[in-house]
Amino acid sequence: MEVAADQARGGFGRRAGRVSEHRLRRVTPRSRIHPGERRDVQGSGGVGGQAGKGTGDYTITTPDHTSRTFDSSGQLTSVVDAAGKGLSLTYVSGELASVKDATGCTTTFTTGTDGLLSKVSLPDGTSVSYGYTDGLLTSVTDPAGKTSSYAYDANKRLSSYTDPEGGKVTNVYDATGRITSQTDQSGKTTTFTWDGDRESHTTAPDGGVWTDVYSGNVLMETIDPYGKSITYDYDRHLRPVDITDQRGNTTSMTYDSAGRMLTRSAPSSLGNSESWTCDAAGNVTGHTDGRGNKTAYAYSSSNQLTTTTDPQGGKTAYRYTSLGAIATVTTPRGRVTEYGYDAAGNRTSVTTPLGEKATFIYDKAGRILSKTDPHGNAAGADPAAHTTTYTYGGRGLLSSATDPLGRTTIYKYNGAEQLTSASVAYTYDDGRTSTMTAEARPPAVGGLGVWGAVGHGRAPFRAVSMSPAPPWRPARRPQRLPRGQGSARTALPQRGNKESQSGAGCRWRLGGWCHVEGNSTGLPVAGGAFPRTGRGVLPHRDPRTRRLDGTGPAGCGAGLRGQGRGRPVRASLRGLERFLR
User: Fold this and answer.
1) Which spans does this entry mark as compositional bias, Polar residues (predicted)?
2) Closest CA relative to residue 187, chosen from 167, 207, 201
3) Report field, pTM of the whole predicted structure over 0.85
4) pLDDT tens string 450-481
5) Cα distance between residue 182 and residue 192, in whole Å
6) What is the dihedral angle through the alpha carbons of 113, 115, 121, 122, rounded to the nearest 10 degrees?
């Protein structure tokens, strides 16, 4: 028996279907499963495992303990996890009508007289609608009312996709129906060529060529634009047993009869090997790392992880809610972290072993609306003073985030739902507001930049991006970084705390107190005082002592400097670049 979907026609038209359309079907007339019997099944779309027959239905359980149940006609009726929680599906006249999750939230599906899906109504009251021409999907209208369109060539192959903002992706095919080029919304083209059935070549917009080598549709080798390759060897079940990287180092794997990995050996030059053991249900019960350290795992009767014992003998315990979500985690020292949830299964609270509690509120779509930190949940505290709030657009994308200090970040997207800009508004002690805009994407490779604000209040100074060749110049003399380290331009302050336009939509406020935030290292960020006259340095704040040590990681303390009124802020790319990476 096998699990498969109709490759010719699905709920979205020709060759366009849904996972729910996978059906259990016989491969041969002798494919039979009797009640209580279990057999292996092969599947498409990642579905496969052990099949068993109940009273009028069939259940397939995959190695990760996900169970899919099919009715007597082969239609999928439920998908549940190891704890028995998941999705239930209902049908009307053979067409999918609804899907209900473990919390009772229901998504409904409307099918037209042509048998094609015309509308999906979501639990939050919004919907997505679909349009067709000659059985081909030609339009999708999202919850915001914005429409994406699809066009096809004479052979009914997708020739173009146009996003809601008018951006177009186009495809070109050869006589055999294989794609030869694709041009994205920005006009960049990727081309594809084949050498028979064994090799494919992908040329990126930058000219780099990637080559894949196949044998019987199985990937055997990948060659990058520099001529370096990764090779693969498989066992008879097409499980990778040897992978050799670009440097010639080979990693080897072995498996048990159920396809679970038993060992993985690092390249011979290292000599490390790790191994796993499993119980009869397929749960990993032990792991030995390359140094011989052993970790043990124990499970409940419903295959939920209950304890982890580390190499030193320390035991971490896990407890779950009735819906299978983690309720508590207890460390080897007996310290307990607790998690709370709402009726929809969203995590609404996290309480640390010290009793500090952070809380969260969600909308009907499961999107977070607000987050209150532990200070806001302390006795006698004002929660609003410690709460970050979030709003979303019609397409479900984050549109704004307002932190406890009243600073609001506005997010904008293009038709492909890619973030294009983030505007941050700051309110100062004198009641004035400054807005700064940063590119959502980094500039050219090797670029780094500085933008920010300094005011009487705790206005942040952020380092995010810099173009080595800035496209703008200020009204006064420019501020440069040292030779060979890139260059930057900063706006010069006017009187007091007046803001001045710099460029690329960025505004600066200079003078008063400065606080630095935002980095990719996970460390607390630097902060320091900027006097109205003289020079101030932004030192690093030590994460352990919470004191300013005056230097910072990789010399970042000398990375940002401020001068007196009427003088520019100075940035050092050398220290700042290493700090951000």
Assistant:
1) 58-72, 181-193
2) 167
3) no
4) 333 333 233 333 333 333 323 322 223 333 33
5) 8
6) 170
